[in-house]
Amino acid sequence: MSDEKAFAADLQYLWRAGTVSLPLVADAYAGATGTLWEVGREGQDAITSRMSDTSVPGGTPEQSHFAISRRVADAKTLQRVYQPFEDVRRVLHQAIAGTAQNLYDAAAILRGLTEHYKATDANAARELDAYIVEQISDPDFTYPAWPQVPISGPDKPYPPKDQ
Predict the structure, then answer these.
(1) b/e for 72-85, b at 16 or more Cβ within 10 A?
(2) Are the CB atoms for 113 and 19 separated by under 8 Å?
(3) From CA 2, how far away is CA 101, in angstroms rounded?
(4) 33, 100 in Cβ contact below 8 A?
(5) How far apart are CA 149 and CA 145, in angstroms?
(6) How far is CA 66 from CA 70, 72, 85, 92, in A?
(7) First-residue to last-residue Cα distance in the chain
(8) Which of 22, 24, 116, 150 sits most deeply, having the most CB atoms within 10 A of its CB?
(9) Measured between alpha carbons, how far is 81 from 79 in angstroms, rounded to an integer?
C-alpha cells in the first residue's frame, strides 16, 4: 500500500472514531448520568415523603402515636443511611459525566483533525469523501444521537425540562 493510500485509510479511521465510535460510547455514559441522577432524587423523595407523612393510622390514640413515631424514626434511619450512599452516587455521577464529556470532546477533536487534513491534502480528501459516501450508504450504518445525549446533574435535571 502506498503512503498516500495508508494516509487516506488513517483519515478514515479518524473520521469513523470521531463521528461514530466515540459519540456512541459517550451517549451511553451520558445516558447513565440520567439514571444515576434519578436514583438519587428518588431516594431523597422517599425520605422526604416519610418524614412529612402526617396521616393518622387507625386504631387507638396510643397505636396511632406509636405508628407515627415509628414512621418518623424509620425515616431518620433512612436519612442516616442515605447520606453515605448519596456521597458515593455523587462521585460516581461526576466521574461518568466527566467521562461522557471527555469522549464528546475527543470526538470533536478527531472530526476537526479529519477536516484539517482534508483541507490540506486533496488526494486524502477525495479518498475520505469516497469512504464517507460508502459508509453512509450502507444500510447497517447508524449515526449516534445528534445532538449528543444530555449529561444530567445538579444544574441540568434529568430528563431535561424541554422534553
Answers:
(1) eeebeebbeebeee
(2) no
(3) 37
(4) yes
(5) 7
(6) 6, 10, 29, 39
(7) 50
(8) 22
(9) 5
